[in-house]
Specification:
This protein is mainly alpha-helical. The chain has 5 helices and no strands. The radius of gyration is 16 Å and the shape is globular. The mean pLDDT is 85.
């Protein structure tokens, strides 16, 4: 098997980006519903959604060896937890471009 076949298999076996988009949209919908029902609980749900997205999306991503230091990974995960409504759309668009273009 040559390098091109190996890379093509890795991309085919990767988690579909559409599942990540659906998880993100579900989290946004849950936040919107909770803000309308109980703004106090929306703060708690905000962090729960960020944690759940981190566990679902970031755990399935492969980190490049050069950038997978403890500091870099911790900072990326912490920023994704705290700013998930902004960070995840950017990340998902980058994943979409990297996998399909």
């Amino acid at each position: 098997m040559n390098v091109g076949d190996y890379l093509a298999n890795k991309v085919r076996n990767a988690e579909p980006v559409t599942k990540f988009f659906l998880a993100y949209l579900l989290a946004l919908f849950a936040m919107a519903a909770m803000v309308n029902m109980s703004p106090g609980l929306a703060v708690l749900l905000y962090f729960i959604c960020g944690f759940a997205l981190n566990r679902y999306i970031l755990s399935k991503m492969r980190w490049h060896v050069m950038h997978s230091s403890l500091s870099n990974v911790a900072m990326a995960k912490l920023s994704a937890l705290l700013l998930w409504p902004v960070v995840y759309p950017i990340l998902l668009v980058q994943l979409l471009i990297a996998r399909h273009f």
